[in-house]
Amino acid sequence: TQLLEQSPQFLSIQEGENLTVYCNSSSVFSSLQWYRQEPGEGPVLLVTVVTGGEVKKLKRLTFQFGDARKDSSLHITAAQPGDTGLYLCAVEYGNKLVFGAGTILRVKS
Amino acid sequence: NAGVTQTPKFQVLKTGQSMTLQCAQDMNHNSMYWYRQDPGMGLRLIYYSASEGTTDKGEVPNGYNVSRLNKREFSLRLESAAPSQTSVYFCASSDSWTSGVLDQYFGPGTRLLVL
Fold first, then answer.
1. pLDDT by residue (tens digit) across B19-67?
2. Do B101 and A92 touch (CB under 8 A)?
3. If phi over 0 gives left and psi between -120 and 50 gives alpha, with beta otherwise, what is residue A50?
4. Which of A17, B17, B36, B108 is positioned for an S-S bond with A13, CB 3.0–4.6 A?
5. Which of A25, A38, A89, A97 best tests the B interface by mutation, with the highest count of B CBs <10 A?
6. Residues above pLDDT 90, as percent of chain B
7. Which residue stretches of chain A have pLDDT < 70?
């Protein structure tokens, strides 16, 4: 059983649509991070959330940390082809980062 | 600043061959990591080095060895490559002392195929 479960595994949408991806766990965490990985590149940190219920916005991306600090969501408004990539959530566990399997997002123009 | 650099970018090996993957960072980070990424399994930690002079096993260390050559460089060695080691390998670095949270910076990856 993975520590972090991400859903959906794959999402293909048209440009301009909205979408939400999820990162869930049965464990409580002090913080949670979201990374985006473009094809052929390494992951790049998007945001870190540390407070239960926290909402952070990064242009068209909205990140929320669950009240109980067990889950998180990433909402993208008016998706663009440049949003295409693998979205990974990660948590600090034993002084190391543990990653979810990711959501592959494809935005078609 | 180049950030985290990795060499080579691509490599094809035959079963039983050995090779070393190189990683260097110019951000003066204390901690460095090696991950492998396989479809549907996310990033799995192979080895890490919390500081210069120390190394520790991660989730999937079997078949690998590492060397923290100095603060900048952290290498990963496959002594006898196996087809199961076909993967994309990422090096990362972080400095948890400044942020209090592990903000990791990744290299571009090495794509390894073992035949």
1. 999 999 999 999 999 999 998 778 999 999 988 989 999 999 999 999 9
2. yes
3. alpha
4. A17
5. A97
6. 80
7. 1
Give A80's contacts (C-beta < 8 A, 6+ positions apart). A15, A60, A107
Helix spans in B1-115 (H): 96-99
* Residue B73 DSSP code: B
Tally of residues, chain B = 115
Residue positions counted in chain A: 109
d(CA A49, CA A30): 9
Cis ω for the linkage preceding A8 (within 30 of 0): yes
Res B96 pLDDT > 70: no
Cβ neighbours, 10 Å, residue A67: 11
Label residue B2 exposed, middle or buried (CB < 10 Å: 0-12, 13-18, 19+): exposed
